[in-house]
Write a structure and sequence with these properties.
alpha/beta; seven-stranded mixed beta sheet; Rossmann fold; single chain; 199 residues; 2 domains
C-alpha cells in the first residue's frame, strides 16, 4: 500500500458540524489523510460553504439535478474517482448512498448515527426523531455509533460507539446536544482505526 495521504470525501446535507470537527481533528492531529471533497444534495448547506472557505471542492449533486438513478450513481462515482477518493464519510447526509457506490467502496464508507445501534436505527431514524424515540423508550443511556455502510440502513458493521447517560429531566434537544459532543469525538477515533487497517 502506498504511503500517500488517504483522500476523504465527506457527504453532508446540513450545517456539517461533524464535517467541521473532522476537518479540525485531522489538522490538529496531523492524520495521514485529507478531505478533498464535500458532496451535498443541498447547494445552500452550511457544509458546502465551509468547504469552499477551506479550499475543499464543494460538489452539489441531487436527484433534482440528476433524476435518473443509474446516471446519479455514475455522476457520484465519477466525482469520487476524479479525486482518487479512498474513504467516504457520511456526516448528516440525508439521502441513501446508491447501491453502485456502496458496492464500489466496500468497508470504505462510514456513517455516524446518533444512537447506540442496533437500537433506534433504520428509515426515518435521524436527527431529533432518534432522541425522541430514545426518551419515549425510557432508556437509561444513549450515545452515537460509527459504522460501515452496507445496502441496509444502519446495519453495517459497528466500528466504535460512545455513550452518554440520560438525565431524569432530559429533553430530545438536550440529549441531542450531549450526543453531538460524543459524535465529534468518536468520528475521528473511528477514522483513525480505519486508516490504521488500510496501511
Amino acid at each position: 500500500m502506498s504511503s500517500r495521504k488517504k483522500n476523504l470525501a465527506v457527504f453532508c446535507s446540513g450545517g456539517g458540524s461533524n464535517f467541521k470537527a473532522l476537518h479540525q481533528h485531522i489538522q490538529e492531529r496531523n492524520l495521514p489523510c485529507q478531505i478533498v471533497m464535500c458532496l451535498s444534495n443541498n447547494s445552500q448547506s452550511g457544509a458546502m460553504q465551509f468547504a469552499r472557505e477551506n479550499g475543499i471542492d464543494a460538489v452539489h449533486l441531487s436527484s433534482k439535478v440528476v433524476p435518473e438513478e443509474a446516471a446519479f450513481a455514475q455522476a457520484m462515482l465519477s466525482e469520487l474517482e476524479k479525486r482518487q477518493v479512498d474513504l467516504i464519510l457520511l456526516a448528516g447526509y440525508m439521502k441513501r448512498v446508491p447501491k453502485a457506490v456502496v458496492e464500489r467502496y466496500p468497508k470504505r464508507i462510514l456513517n455516524i448515527h446518533p444512537a447506540l445501534l442496533p437500537k433506534f436505527g433504520g428509515e426515518g431514524m435521524y436527527g431529533i426523531n432518534v432522541h425522541r424515540a430514545v426518551l419515549e423508550a425510557k432508556e437509561k443511556e444513549s450515545g452515537a455509533t460509527v459504522h460501515f455502510v452496507d445496502e441496509h440502513y444502519d446495519e453495517g458493521e459497528i466500528i466504535i460507539q460512545g455513550k452518554v447517560s440520560i438525565a431524569p429531566d432530559e429533553t430530545p434537544e438536550s440529549l441531542a446536544s450531549k450526543v453531538l459532543e460524543v459524535e465529534h469525538r468518536i468520528y475521528t477515533e473511528a477514522l483513525v482505526k480505519v486508516l490504521e487497517k488500510m496501511n
